[in-house]
Design goal:
The complex is a heterodimer of chains A (about 220) and B (about 775).
Chain A (H helix, E strand, L loop, with lengths): L1 E6 L6 H11 L3 E6 L9 E3 L7 H11 L4 E4 L1 H8 L6 E3 L7 E9 L15 E8 L3 E3 L2 H9 L3 E6 L18 E5 L5 E4 L17 H13 L1
Chain B lengths: L3 H6 L4 H11 L5 H10 L2 H4 L4 H4 L9 E3 L6 E4 L4 E9 L1 H6 L1 H17 L4 E11 L7 H19 L3 E8 L8 E11 L14 E6 L9 H4 L20 H16 L3 E6 L4 H13 L2 E5 L12 H6 L5 E6 L4 H10 L4 E8 L3 E6 L2 E7 H4 L15 H6 L3 H8 L8 H18 L6 H10 L8 H4 L10 E3 L6 E4 L6 E7 L2 H6 L1 H18 L3 E10 L6 H21 L3 E7 L3 E2 L2 E2 L3 E10 L16 E5 L10 H7 L11 H16 L5 E4 L4 H10 L7 E5 L8 H10 L6 E5 L4 H10 L4 E7 L3 E6 L2 E7 H13 L8
Parallel strand pairs in B: 4-5, 9-12, 17-18, 24-27
Antiparallel strand pairs in B: 1-2, 2-3, 3-6, 4-6, 7-10, 7-11, 8-10, 9-11, 12-13, 14-15, 15-16, 16-21, 17-21, 19-20, 22-25, 22-26, 23-25, 24-26, 27-28
Helix pairs in contact in B: 7-8, 8-10, 10-13, 17-18, 18-28, 21-22, 21-24
Classes of the chains: A alpha/beta (about 220), B alpha+beta (about 775).
Chain lengths: ~220, ~775
């Protein structure tokens, strides 16, 4: 198994994802330059920009069932590219927000949450100015009915509460998947929560899930 | 023609003009005059400050690069160097807060990667007028959003900083930004041009008319016409800078590069003359080759533009294609705009004809140097006088009521806190503590720092608000601790002592994280140096910095001077801001301010002397900025810092927090915050400074005596800590124990403070946030 981390000219967290995969988990990872039209390996995690040559490859890979994770800016790009439903608005308070949040795992039948138990509470940082998830009411209804909401912002006990929704996301949505469940977007940064020195390891679960999912496949 | 008004617009004196004529042997043309005016501006030439700055200690075995390059560097082991510098962007931030602050961040980042280092951390030091004052909230919001907008987008974490609110900054806020990067020692790149025939390249954003005369603007006072100078503020593009950063670091890995410098203040002019001057070479530039955003730009405008995100490179002849290829990969267009010569001249051409020709030396080494007149300010003796007994006679009747909206707010908050505290008997000191915690200068800065991405790059092990910012160095066991500190009020009362205290506090904060302070950078914010009283403040502050840096072994490796911080003739407090960088051998031994667990012992390192001069207590409770700032014994300070580093390395202590604004009581409260409401029980003794017992109590609780640190430790380690302290000649004693859910402080057996941590923390957390209460439901 091999992680591909797509690097765009303006992307930031590519090195962080690379560090998490390679140095923390000891897994195989490589950077994929956005101008390349070849995926080289198997599994991708990271950010993507809609019109770069690599995106058509990512889309094709996803259509074959390959697991694709978009974190933060990566989630925004998956939305822009139409690979996930919905859109991101500016945070409710119109300010960038960087802090730890609590997330409740809603569903575990995706390659990125399969190592968790439903209802599991994760403490993982966010860092975004546009993470206010928005979708039309009928789209939200369909997402809920299809069990496509993967993570929700909650209080530390896993209860929904407006004060614990950091950006005003509809239905407190922090993560959704596509209908085939192999493409997942999430605003929080699991790669920032993989080492005790950084103040928490709950993000490991996302990476461990991929490892588990790939082992089963 | 060049007459009086033209010279005035260029900020040049008649004498300076005569000097220019002498250098050239003829009258300058307007392009040349423009070039001289920016290079001889205070901002670029340091003409008023240079004679004083020369006295600063800049050497030491740890120093890899001292002042004079784009940034300083210190050795941090493993063959690596930390490259860092602090810089001001005060004037642009006042005129246009978002862009002014954003481009300040962009500029300091360029200074760091220009040295070949990858930037990994940002800090900032900000000063504003009182938060309830007109315009302050808009300024704060704009500056913070600008810093966030740039730093977050480019992916460099802002890991710490400081903010203070004082009326003295209402008409002239301070925005000082610090950046640190890491580079292999052997890979450091310099801003030097050499080798006649080598190519000069321009890369980055196109040149526009923005920012023309920014350097001159930064060298003049403000008045009500300043808003008209808005076109002199540049617009930042962090995406372009990200491309430049990655592309330049890649170019530096090839051996095709001779030197590189960013086009900051005074743009193309400053970068080309400084590079030429450092290499003893000349540079010839054809402005027609310079990529331009607007049509019809004159050589004058092109040479003086301060458009952002531009770099100047000197590339080995024959290697141009290699460099161009790398920039192409990043969708950047590198353009050859000239070449290095061996005649030591800055020669500007336009389509073949020479439009400016000036010896580099005249613009750099031989720029004017002034020994400005100095005189002790008249206000000093008056404000240094603090008659505690007179003050005490007022205090008997209860706390003095300071005037203005702050007092009203503080009163209201105190009343609330008293009511909420319920069962707790609200003593006088309780209320004072709560109002100090609710003072924006002391209160939590969470509203600010959570707008900064402080975690990107996954190195941050001490986030903002928890002590010095600490970043681990990937691939090693080590970490760096960073702190920026300054206290304008102290420096106003005594610039020499105030500046020493700033160095000591920054170094102490670094030591509190467990790191050994290694080097420093300074940003010197002062008023108009042409006033003898201001120049005296400047000279005294530099003396103080020098004394403290020598004693604490933190040489100054670079920095920045910002003068003319005045609006309508009213100067800011003299405000030297000091950034200190320290090294932690084992990242996992890092310490923060928070108590860790109930049952740990609380140990006070250092001694209080009940000093109230210049304190936040006097300001908040009595509306008074008076007295002498706390005394500082540099030997004691050095011993204290050595002890902290040793205790941390041995793993003997669980937390460490510097005792500064608000004194011991505020420090203890802060040790309890963000812990899930763990309290502490502490017992101290009174210091007799006055006939008045209330003041004596206040002095013990809220006096800001220097060289003090609160540490917590497992009970089993206390004996070892006291041993180490005794061996190091540092006063130390157990003053209490962590536990409960309240902070209780007794003086000589009498309980004077008893506040539930939840209540205290609410006052502290909302100090700034309540000014920006959420507007959307």
């Amino acid at each position: 198994m091999r992680f591909g981390i797509v690097v765009f000219p303006g992307s930031n967290c590519d090195e962080d994802a690379y560090h998490a995969v390679r140095d923390v988990f000891g897994l195989d990872a490589e950077y994929l330059w956005h101008k390349d039209a070849d995926l080289k390996g198997a599994l991708r995690t990271g950010a993507m920009a809609r019109f770069s040559p690599i995106m058509s490859q990512v889309r094709a890979f996803a259509e074959q069932g390959g697991p694709v994770l978009g974190i933060c800016n990566g989630f925004q790009i998956l939305l822009e590219a139409g690979m996930l439903p919905g859109a991101m608005l500016r945070n409710r308070e119109l300010k960038y927000r960087c802090e730890h949040v609590h997330l409740r795992v809603e569903h575990t039948d995706t390659p990125f949450t399969c190592a968790a138990a439903p209802g599991h509470i994760l403490r993982i940082p966010i860092g975004h100015g546009e993470g206010n998830y928005f979708a039309a009411p009928d789209v939200l209804d369909r997402l809920e009915a299809n069990r496509q909401v993967i993570l929700r912002y909650t209080d530390p006990e896993g209860r929904l509460a407006d004060a614990w929704n950091p950006n005003g996301s509809a239905n407190a949505i922090a993560s959704v998947c596509n209908e085939s469940r192999n493409v997942v977007g999430m605003m929080p940064h699991p790669e920032r929560a993989c080492e005790p020195l950084l103040g928490g390891v709950d993000g490991r679960l996302i990476f461990e899930s991929v490892v588990t999912a790939m082992a089963i496949r | 023609m060049i007459d009086g008004p033209v010279l005035e617009r260029h900020g040049l004196t008649r004498d300076e003009y005569e000097r220019i004529v002498q250098f050239l042997g003829r009258a300058p043309n307007i392009t040349e005059l423009g070039i001289f005016s920016v290079m001889w501006s205070e901002h670029c030439s340091y003409k008023s400050s240079r004679v004083h700055l020369k006295t600063l200690p800049t050497e030491g075995p740890q120093v890899v690069q001292g002042p004079g390059e784009n940034a300083g560097a210190i050795d941090i082991g493993d063959g690596l160097a930390a490259v860092f510098k602090i810089e001001s962007h005060n004037h642009p931030s006042f005129i246009e807060p978002y862009q002014g602050a954003a481009t300040g961040v962009g500029g300091i980042i360029r200074d760091i990667f220009t040295m070949g280092a990858r930037p990994i951390a940002l800090l900032n030091s900000l000063r504003f007028g009182p938060l309830h004052g007109p315009g302050t909230r808009r300024l704060l919001e704009g500056v913070v959003a600008g810093i966030a907008g740039y730093g977050n987008s480019i992916g460099i974490p802002t890991v710490g900083g400081e903010i203070a609110f004082e009326p003295a900054y209402a008409g002239n806020p301070l925005v000082n930004v610090f950046c640190l990067g890491i580079v292999k020692r052997s890979d450091i790149v310099k801003g030097v041009a050499s080798g006649a025939g080598n190519s000069v390249y321009y890369v980055g954003a196109k040149t526009g008319r923005d920012g023309i005369h920014g350097a001159t603007m930064a060298s003049a006072e403000f008045d009500d016409k300043s808003a008209e100078k808005r076109p002199a503020v540049q617009v930042g593009d962090p995406f372009m800078e990200k491309l430049l950063l990655e592309a330049c670091l890649e170019v530096m890995k090839s051996d095709a590069l001779i030197g590189i410098q960013d086009m900051g203040a005074a743009g193309l002019t400053c970068s080309s003359t400084e590079m030429g001057s450092r290499g003893g070479a000349g540079i010839e530039i054809d402005v027609a080759q310079v990529p331009q955003r607007e049509t019809g730009m004159t050589p004058y405008e092109i040479m003086l533009s301060e458009s952002q995100e531009r770099m100047l490179l000197v590339v080995k002849r024959g290697r141009e294609a290699d460099v161009e290829r790398i920039f192409d990969k990043w969708d950047l267009h590198a353009v050859r705009v000239g070449e290095v010569t061996n005649d030591g001249m800055l020669r500007v051409k336009q389509a073949g004809s020479v439009v400016a020709e000036i010896p580099n030396r005249a613009l750099t080494d031989e720029a004017p140097v002034y020994h400005r007149a100095m005189r002790e300010p008249d206000y000093l003796h008056e404000v240094q006088r603090l008659d505690l007994d007179a003050l005490g006679s007022h205090v008997v009747a209860g706390r003095l009521r300071a005037g203005g909206a702050t007092a009203t707010r503080a009163e209201a908050r105190m009343e609330n806190a008293r009511a909420e505290a319920g069962a707790v008997q609200p003593g006088e000191s309780n209320a004072v503590l709560l109002s100090l915690l609710a003072s924006p200068t002391i209160g939590s800065k969470r509203w600010v720092y959570r707008q900064y991405d402080h975690m990107v790059r996954t190195n941050t092990i001490n986030v903002p608000g928890f002590g010095a910012g600490v970043v681990r160095i990937k691939g090693t066991s080590r970490a760096l601790a960073l702190s920026v500190d300054g206290n304008g009020r102290y420096c106003y009362l005594d610039p020499y002592r105030g500046a020493m205290l700033a160095v000591a506090e920054a170094a102490r904060n670094v030591a509190c994280a467990g790191a050994r302070p290694l080097g420093a950078t300074n940003c010197l914010n002062f008023g108009n140096p042409e006033r003898p009283a201001i120049m005296w403040q400047f000279a005294k502050a530099v003396e103080g910095i020098g004394a403290a840096c020598r004693a604490l072994n933190v040489p100054i490796t670079g920095g920045n001077v910002s003068l003319y911080n005045e609006t309508d003739g009213k100067a800011i407090y003299p405000t030297p801001v000091i950034g200190v960088v320290g090294l932690l051998e084992h990242a996992d031994r890092v310490l923060g301010r928070r108590f860790r667990r109930a049952g740990d012992e609380v140990v006070l390192l250092g001694e209080g002397h009940g000093e109230l001069g210049g304190s936040e207590y006097l300001k908040v409770e009595h509306g008074m900025v008076r007295g002498l700032p706390p005394a500082l014994n540099l030997d004691v300070e050095r011993s204290l810092q050595d002890l902290l580093v040793a205790l941390a390395a041995e793993g003997l202590i669980e937390s460490a927090h510097d005792c500064s604004d608000g004194g011991l009581a505020v420090t203890l409260a802060e040790c309890c915050f963000d812990t899930g409401a763990i309290g502490a029980d502490v017992s101290i003794s009174r210091t007799g400074i006055s006939q008045n017992e209330t003041l004596n109590t206040a002095a013990a609780l809220f006096g800001e005596s220097s060289s003090r640190v609160i540490v917590s430790a497992r009970p089993g380690q206390v004996a070892a800590i006291l041993d180490r302290a005794a061996a190091g000649n540092v006063p130390a004693r157990v003053i209490g124990r962590v536990g409960g859910d309240a902070l209780r402080i007794a003086i000589d057996g009498q309980l004077v403070i008893e506040v539930a941590i939840d209540d205290a923390e609410r006052a502290w957390t909302s100090a700034i946030e309540h000014y920006f209460a959420r507007r959307v439901a």
